[in-house]
Amino acid sequence: MENDMVTMALDEVDLLARRVLTRHGLRGDHVDAVARTIVAGERDGCASHGVYRLLVAVNTLKSGKVDPAVEPVITRPAPGLVRADAGGGFAQLAIERALSALVDSARTNGIAALAVNRCIHFAALWPEVEMLVEHGLVALATTPSHAWVAPAGGSRPLFGTNPIAFGWPRPDASPFVFDFATSAAARGEIELHRRAGNPIPAGWGIDADGHPTTDAQAALDGAMLTWGGYKGSALSTMVELIAGPLIGDLTSAESIAWDAGAGASPYGGELIVAIDPAGFLGAAAAGHLARAETLFDALAAQGARLPGARRHANRKLSVAEGVRVPAALHRDIMALLEEEDA
Amino acid sequence: MENDMVTMALDEVDLLARRVLTRHGLRGDHVDAVARTIVAGERDGCASHGVYRLLVAVNTLKSGKVDPAVEPVITRPAPGLVRADAGGGFAQLAIERALSALVDSARTNGIAALAVNRCIHFAALWPEVEMLVEHGLVALATTPSHAWVAPAGGSRPLFGTNPIAFGWPRPDASPFVFDFATSAAARGEIELHRRAGNPIPAGWGIDADGHPTTDAQAALDGAMLTWGGYKGSALSTMVELIAGPLIGDLTSAESIAWDAGAGASPYGGELIVAIDPAGFLGAAAAGHLARAETLFDALAAQGARLPGARRHANRKLSVAEGVRVPAALHRDIMALLEEEDA
Asked: Mind telling me the catalytic residues of B?
């Protein structure tokens, strides 16, 4: 039955991810780094960024659009800036290799930025935001993607789904972390509606003629819409600029042109900004972070949800009981291990 | 007739602003700094941030909640950080006094942040963003306000209108600049509906019982809503955190508690981040900024509007022909000059 689920311990997920990625040519520390984000996604209940992404990563490996073995190069172009040249590899290893330099720079200067350049990006942004939060830093991350989204007032794809992620450390609780697309929906959500044969909600997309549509395929062939009208469109433009030209990397339109129909994941840059609360506050940091807790308490008292809380609840459960993967998806992934021409 | 307009040259607006502010006790360089933002707002066609704000500023001066003569203190707590302690004065002079240190720090470190602390804030954020853009920097500014806005999933005021402003330098065009509230509407827009006796659109506010309302007064007495649901609510939370506790300053809830019904403008901090394109790009900066122009051209080709363009068009017109102020508003402002107890 298609509703069957396969229960896996997290170390089984990790082993499966490594086997699949290695089978399809990924090499060296890239295997660890990519597997780690896939395990983290599955563990936190983000189905679209869990083992499902193995299909996406393998597709990109097969396309020849990613260098499976390149070593990232980390440089410091200015006291507050770190650059990680991913050299055409997946983003994860470049981020991991640059992290300590970014943390050092933020602690020394109060604020610092990391540009990850020439990377293939298929993952969520919250893993790197959480890595910085674990060091007690406030973090912001953003990246363009492929040009799939029409600007407000326009009718043709120009922006990526252009996610923005933010993290804030909490001394005695899971961190405040959000990570959302500046498009009305994630592209994966529209894909899921298409697979299920369901219409998409109004406001998610327009067809190739620029007319509103609730047909998932028509929206994928036309354009997705930005979240929140003109304001969302302005934010999406900002993402194109600060994680594109500002760091010497591609816009979403340039990324999809580079792809040239190969169907690989987006290629370009990611900007990560880290701020050390001790920079402005010194020894008073703990007291001021406590006032942030008052804000979170007031949010909770109104019944408003805290972003990131559900992921962390799922995490506890997954560590204790493992994760449940749809049997059909599990079969598709196992089949990747059997392919002859990998 | 109430629709009558008074035409004023920009230097007349400036003189009027200075006279009104001085008449109500503002002193020293504060008069220049505050008048400048009011003239800029009127000049750019932002009616709610033009001479109308003289009423707001005078109201705050009368409340005793602002120090009309305090000298801002500028310090450098870390190589990438600048602090401007406004000491309970209006924000404008503190920002002006700190600007060159922020520009220097961004050029030296690649990225830098300015915390404006203990300031009374009633102005738009685009003036400071544009000041940085004129130095060739990319800039982001944000500030909490008073707790007027309910979080998504909540029903009571907790957030401010929490604007976010961003600016990007363009070599041969007016800069790309946006500045918008993370609430569904600006509070001033709801005030304007109330004055006109018009209902507000659904989605702008809820009444004191937490029910959706289209009654402007009921929304002002209840709570405004965030723009864009949960995502807007997450961004608004981020603003509270990074321009509140992170810089040792008040949240919107703390600001309105401090006000204690006086009806003064919000009190607290503002965070401004500046990034130097030459930091990551060096001599290649011009070439990469040119790729941003390709993005703007693509936006324009679709008929999408560029934020900031309308303001700059108004600016040209105002410089040439002056501005037109509603006669009733002009009378209200002139009356401020006649008050006996100022």
From this structure: 48-49, 189
The CATH number for A105's domain is: 3.30.1370.60
> What is the least distance, in Å, from the CA of B255 to any CA of chain A?
13
- Per-residue tokens: A232: 């969302």
Residue numbers of A annotated as active site: 48-49, 189
| Cα–Cα distance measured from residue B54 to residue B21, given in angstroms and rounded to the nearest whole number | 8
- A chain contacts of residue B138, beta-carbon cutoff 8 Å: 241-242, 246
Does residue A212 fall inside a structural domain? no
Per residue in A157-212, pLDDT tens?
Answer: 999 999 999 999 999 999 999 999 999 998 888 988 998 899 999 999 999 999 99
Within a domain: B39: yes
Residue A211 CB burial class (10 angstroms; 0-12, 13-18, ≥19): exposed
Interface contact flag, B307 A234, Cβ < 8 Å: yes
Q: Write the ipTM.
A: 0.96
Q: Mark whether A12 and A116 lie in a shared domain.
A: no
Provide the domain count of chain A: 2
Instruction: Establish if A214 belongs to a structural domain.
Output: no
**CA neighbours closer than 13 Å in the CB half-sphere of residue B192:** 10
Closest CA to A187 of A151, A150, A149, A218: A149
| CATH number of A15's domain | 1.10.1530.10
